[in-house]
Amino acid sequence: MITKLLIANRGEIACRVIKTAKRMGIATVAVYSDADREALHVRMADEAVHIGPSPAKDSYLQINKIIAACKTTGAQAVHPGYGFLSENPKFAEALQAAGIIFVGPPVKAIEAMGDKITSKKLAAEAGVSTVPGHMGLIDDAEHAVTISKSVGYPVMIKASAGGGGKGMRIAWTDAEAREGFDRSKSEAASSFGDDRIFIEKFVTEPRHIEIQLIGDSHGNVLYLNERECSIQRRNQKVIEEAPSPFLDEATRKAMGEQSVALAKAVGYQSAGTVEFIVDKDKKFYFLEMNTRLQVEHPVTELITGLDLVELMLRAANGEKLPLQQADVQRNGWAIESRLYAEDPYRNFLPSTGRLTKYRPPVESVTGDLVVRNDTGVFEGGEISTFYDPMIAKLCTWAPTRGEAIDAMAVALDSFEVEGVGNNLPFLSTVMEQTRFREGRLTTGYIAEEFPEGFHGAELSEEHVFDIAAAAAMMMTRRVARNGDTATAHHWHVQLGEQALPVSISPDGDGFVVDAEWRSQAARLDWRPGSGLAHVDWSDGRRAVLKVNTTTSGFRIRYRGADLKVLVLAPHVAALLKHMPIKVPPDMSKFLLCPMPGQVVRIDVAEGDVVEDGQTLAIVEAMKMENVLKAEKKARISKVHAVAGEVLAVDQVILEFEAV
Predict the structure, then answer these.
(1) Distance CA 300, CA 227 (A)
(2) Of residues 226, 288, 342, 625, which has the active-site annotation?
């Protein structure tokens, strides 16, 4: 058996692998860059080796440094995680040449499936349904237009060596095909060192459903059910679940068997995932095969009871799979929410900085509920510009889909993160949407449900009552602490544009809350200064609210809403209309950098007249190129930035004047 394992990765996946290795009695070795010197995975491992500067190309992508770390520490095997070198056949080959076990598939399988063009040809030969498209490489932007027209718009322009949403663009017109080709090619070169591009038909109303595989070196391959990964943003998965609410048994079986056939055709072993696009009629088409562990693997583990990392390690050790296809379970429902350091109110742009508060919900395992949090960060740690902005993967499991969603909503409410922008309010909002709860999903879900971007949740009447009542109870407790001995209080609660009179009276160890349309008893678990308020209602409901105390009330975050809530005595509230309102400055004449990042290029010069929709600049952040375009016709009066410059969020790039 492998006795010492090096994890050639960082962050939450490195921590995830370390946990299983330790449970199996395997010693672990972490590698780290300058930026990760104090990282959680370094603290968790038995040993740690420094492998270079912060940029991944100088550290985590350096094959020779990984092999040197193995030799220095005596590590017999390497688990690559996902990303970085995980699907690089040269890495697997170099490990093999050095006599080090690669915890993954054979080199030939990585080569065959890692190239999207080759993999589609092999899939077709193995009898797997594939998407129409051009399987050859695209020479230039004009060639991309020609191919796009022949395939028929809309098309997907993709990097052959791509993954994680990088190097992918959807084009509906010739102009978008040209720009999509240029951007995909550039992103592919910087992210994968391979700028080859191909084009395929974009399926409308698509679902993204994938099949998890596990294989051993004895020719056995099993499919471990499916995952629904349709809720995506910029081709990056955000919420996943297992099983899919859409598939029937016949479709599930057909997808699983075709996936196994493809894997066996290339001599596959270890964990792998075959990704499909599924249309509204349950017709499915092969997209690609990921020859590694997927980010979203926890939901499969939760419904099958299997540890995929353990199965990978045992397969790498030459063991046979401990089960057959008939033994694979599908028990209950699991949901995963990816918590990213990105600002949903600013079009999900990356955010960086120090985590001044990081307090996830308590992980638990009971017969009817599981809460799991896979993470690689800690309170006081830093989210840097060098790597993926993921903070954590929060998972819940319950016997039914509805119960799993309810559990996720509460877990998200209980997750405290401060210091960086994050997508917690967005994730909470999705959990409350009727369309999501009904399982009516497509890969266009976010664009369709939030066409004008995310601006916070629209609260139901019940949630408005929850917030107003909690705020009134907390204020009652605040004034009591300051010496107010009144037994009952009457408050004016202002939530944005809504104003509610709320009365609070004692009721044993709790309160009775009276609002305009509702009266109910509740118990409040909160003390002044606490970050979370727990409210247990007499009807059995429970609300968890994130709370920050302000001068005359609270900042409350609940179910996707982020509200400044004023709690005032009625006579004070009557004076509100006389208070001046501060008007924010007009910034419309400036192009501001929307996120911390590096300027790739500036496409205009001082004196140029630009039109609505014209590209002004490109800024790269977290290895993604963000195209900044003009919102109206204007003249460039001043250029404040240059290509190569690293900018902070809201730093001025260009200045406009009217024409």
Answers:
(1) 7
(2) 288
